[in-house]
Structures are given as structure tokens and as C-alpha cells.
Amino acid sequence: MPLAARRLPTEFASLDPLEAWTRTRTSPRPERLEAGVETLPGVGPKLRAQLGKLGLRTLRDLLEYRPRDYQRAVGETRIADLFGDGEVVIAGDVLGASLRPTRRRTTVLRAAVADESGTITAVWFNQPWLADKLRPGTRVRLRGQLRRGDFAVKSFDLEGGAATADLAPIYPASEHVSVARLRDLVAQALPLARDLGDGLPAALKARSRLAQRADALLALHRPGAPEEAEEGRRRLAFDELLVLQLGLLRLGREREGASAPALPAPGELAARYRAGLPFRLTTDQERVMGEIDTDLARPVPMQRLLQGDVGSGKTVVALYALLRAVEAGRRGALMAPTETLAEQHFLTLEERCRELGVSCALLTGSATRAQRLEAERASIVVGTHALIQESVELSDLAVAVVDEQHRFGVEQRRALAARHSPHVLHMTATPIPRTLALTVYGDLQVSEITLLPASRKPIVTAWVTPERSGEAYRRLRRHLDDGRQAYVVCPLIEESETTLARAAEAEAERLRLGELRDYRVGLLHGRLRPQDRRELMGRFKAGAIDVLVATTVIEVGVDVPNATIMIVQEADRFGLAQLHQLRGRVGRGAEQSYCLLVSRGRDELTDAARERLEALVRTTDGFELAEADLELRGEGQLLGTRQAGLSELRFTRLRADRELLEGARAAAASLLDHEGPLLDEVERLFGGREVGA
Ligand code: ADP
Ligand code: MG
Predict the structure, then answer these.
(1) Looking at the whole model, is its pTM more than 0.85?
(2) Taking burial as the number of CB atoms within 10 A of a residue's CB, which of 342, 467, 545, 657 is the most buried?
(3) pLDDT 10s digits, 444-454
């Protein structure tokens, strides 16, 4: 946007320089919050390290530490009335305390506590740091139970703290740092809540019904009622979403400023490609192609995310985008996250390209000089992201397709945009709910393919126990006897690629001698040399191999419509998204396909594993599974830690916070237009961290 077009957005209009200054004055010392946790009494090097493992390094980290839950208070009991072994709360004053080591190198802290009805000895185990605090006259509230005439303390508050409050926060603790300890530390940081300042203009807060930031922090740690905790959470979620959206919008705008070749309308090659497809495009595919045509006609780089379930026909659309570059006399590139995936894409594209008379080359790390030269001249080049960026002069690259977007974070997207400015189509076969997409890919336009090709029959999925795996293999052999092909996925072992390869080799050998004795078995794993892998995939595609025994390297990209059945061994070890990806390797043709998940019996599985398998049996809809995954794993975990940005969302509940997200996005846009000191202040207060870094 040209500078002159920037105007003061209305929600910031109330903010005159004087008010801004006053607000700065009311947040006098935010730097106090950047002090390390070791500045608190009782925190030595050891505890400091243990807190570090929980991500707690500064006082600010403590202030922003989100309770995972709250514990409801129980009414206070008079000391004279203590009886039985239920958990109760007592309140009183400390008369005196003593600390004693025990023989087993633990400590016992005992304190006499009195209320108006009587006195009792309260006992703490292994909390020697408390001794100094239990001075005579200290007011305490203790939650615990009677044990041999003493009161064994489970949680406590000194001088009106949090633990026995109406809703006591339960912090994510660790083996070394207890919830009680965390409560104490947070309580010490809490008085500094106001030092951070607020950062948001009053008008904006009013419009989005947001609390003051300091109040939000207080409500988070000391809620009087669940609604208060929720109010606090909302405000903190808004702040983190605002920072994330600022980063994403900035990225988007950086690109808006870049220029890309505006391509003429679709021509003869595009028409020939469409006409040559052996099927009718779905309406979703048609619509997305139209969206791409519109983007390509603009002199600004396309930045579009194409979301669609496995087998929904994204690659067909991607090739269309690449061919649009070629017919304009320029080049296209398809970038995959790994060489294996690049090779698999290449096998698919090459065939179509040959029919169309378009040169298509694969660029791998092991490419010879001649192959490299060929790749540099080809109209369409397929390779890993890194290889294409590093080794090819891409001045005439007009369209880049980036596969498996979820493996690239904001930074990678920025790098791609910075070095060249081709039109970019990001493709992901891990569809995520729209709200989430807006959060993580807020700098992109989102296209979706939700309809599967009409000829497609949903894959039948069954869950079988190991005792019945003999039946599963019998069924698989029936498919082979009918001229179909199959996959067997090896158990996932959390070790190196090499161990994984060795285990896969052993498994393939076992099957060759046993269940699959009479069939042609191929083995695919990540340790195969690229040319061997390529040759193997080529033979499987050509039908010269009946069964592909594979590690998860077949997860994405393999496209053999004649493969109609898959057995996944020890399926409970895989993640939901991963199993869904694996399953997508079958059901790509018109034949009814099957996916058989072998795992231990229900009773032996964790709840999460059981729910994953149940979800897969229940539905083949990737969007629905993404929601289920979200439920099971929580927001931050959905895409793993690779997904920078998303993993930093601590307060946001993506399913519930849609409106909040949209508010944050609008506010971020206003702030960017307005820029200046307000933006700096917002970033200083909430961010400090670069988004996606
Ligand atoms: P994705 O990349 O989304 O996994 P692909 O583009 O690889 O999906 O398509 C999966 C399979 O479905 C391929 O074999 C492809 O040829 C076929 N296919 C794609 N679009 C259609 C369609 N409209 N009708 C029938 N089959 C299709
Ligand atoms: Mg594909």
C-alpha cells in the first residue's frame, strides 16, 4: 500500500500522542519482567535449570505460564473438627516450624498451626525451601488430610495465595518441579503484572470485549470463578494471535510489493492438457484452476495454499499451474520436502509431460553434471526445495509448486519469496480446519478441494488384532490374485533411518518366506540409493512388483491406482495424520480399496491410540480427521514443533476463538497501516520474539 493511502484506523483514533505517552508512563518498568527466575529467593542454579526445561526462564515466563486446569476449593474445616481421612482445607497462623532431615536423605518440615478452635502439626515432605517462610504469625491456608494425628499438606497458601483459593491453578509441573513450587513462584511474580503495561488502545479492547492485560494475568492465576479465568485467557490469546497475525500480514505485504510475471490467459497447451485427461475434472478442481488463472494474470506473486485430502486431485491442478508457465515461454518447478517425494512426483509428472511434448527433469543431490545441465534446461524441473533454490538459475521461473506446505514454516516461505518472486502454489495433503489455516497460513490465499472424484469409492478401513492378521494377509493375497497390487507398511520404530531400514529388510524377508511366498515383493525405505528407489517405484508402477513393503517413505506422493489394499502393522504407533496419509496410497482408482490396521487389542492400547484408530475406521474425510486430531492432541501439537508460530500459541483455542482470531487479524492490519510508535509498543509488550523465527 502506498504510504499516502495509510490512514489512522478508527479504533486507534482515540489514541492521541498524550494518551500514548501516559500509557507508557503507567507501564514503568517492563524490563523488570525480563529478569531471570534466579532473582527470586530460593531459586538456585539447579532449580533454575529445571524451570528452564519447563520453558520458564524469566519472571515474565512465570507470569505467562498457563495453568492446565483449576482445582475447586473445598470449604474450610475447623482444626478441632478434623476427623477421618478426606481431603480438607484448614486456615490458621503458624506458631513455629522446624526442619529435619530424615535417614533417607529427604526432609520433613513440621509447623504448628493454630486457629481459634485448636492447634495441629502440619507436615510437608521435601520442601525445605519453605522453612524460611513459615515464620511465627504467618497466615496459612492448607489443603491436605489427617495422617496419624498430623496434617499432611498437599497444597497450601501463605498470606492469601492461590493454592487453596476458590479455583487453585494447576500448572504443568515436572518430575523435579511440583505444582506447589510453581504456585509459589508464580505468586512471587504476580505483583509485577502491572509492570508490563497494556499495549492495546481502549477502543479496541472495548470492541473485542477484552480485559486489561494485567487483570487478565491476575484472572489467569487467581480466578474467582471459571468465567474469570476464561476472560483472562481470551485477552492473552488475543495478544498472541495479534503478534502472529502481524508477522504473517507483514510477510504477505512484503510479497505484495514484489513483482512477478503476469501470464497471458490459458492457451493451447493448457487446453490440450485438460482435453487429454482420462477423466472429468471435479467442480472443485475447475474452481481452483480458475483461482490460479486469476492469480497468474496479476503482476504480483501468487501465494496460494491448495488444501485437499489425499487423492483429491491436487497434483492434477498443480501440473496445470506449471504448464501455464511453460506455455508462456517460461519455466515451472515442483519442490518437495525430500528427494524420495521429489522422485515420486517426477514419475507422475513425467508421463503426462511426455504426452504433451514438454521437457521435465528431476534434480537430485546425486545428479551427474549432464543430468544437472538437463535439469537447467527443462521446462519443468522437480526436486527438493533446497536443491532447486541452490543450484538452478531460476530467473525465468514463473510458477513454483511447493508440496507439503506443513513442513515449511514462515521463515522458509519468506526465503522463497525473497530470493525469487515466482508465483507460488503451496500444496498440502494435511488439510486443516479453516480457522487453523487462517492462523498458520494467514499470509496465503486458501483454496480447497473437498469433493473427491465421483468415481472414487471411500476406502474401507478395518481394525484387526494381531491374532487375526492371518486373515488380513489372506485378503491381501486375494487382491493380488485378481491382478491388483498392495502395500504393507512396516512398524514405526523411533530410531535412525538405518535401523528402520534394517527392520524393514527383516520384515520383507519374513514376508517373502511366509505370507507373501508366491508373490513379487519389493522393499522401499529411506536408505535406498536414489536410482534404486526410482527403479523400484518404476517397476511397481509398471506392475512388475505385486507388493511394496515400505516404511513411511510412501506416506506422500506415491500414485499407483492399481494398488487396492494396504496392511499397516502396529498401527497404534502412528499418528492420526500419518495413518491418513498412508491410507491415501490406496483408493486412487475406481476399484473398491481396503486399509487394514493391525494393532494390539483395544484393552491394551492407550485411550489416545484407541481413539485414533476408531476415528480412522469411522471416516475417510481428512477435514474431519484433522478436527479429531486437534481434539486428541491439542492445538499446539497438531502440526508438531516444525510448525513455528503455531507451537507458540499457548492461550488460543482455535476451535473456540474464531472470532477472536478475526478480530486480531483486523487489528493487525490496522496496526500495520498505522505503524509508528504504537506498533513498536505492541511488539515490545507482547512479542519480543520474531514470529516464526
Ligand atoms: P492428490 O495429489 O490430491 O493426492 P492426485 O492429483 O495425485 O491427488 O490424484 C489422485 C488420483 O486420482 C490420480 O490417479 C489421478 O489421476 C486421479 N484423479 C485426479 N482427478 C481426478 C478426477 N477428477 N476424476 C478421476 N480421477 C482423478
Ligand atoms: Mg498427489
Answers:
(1) no
(2) 342
(3) 888 988 888 87
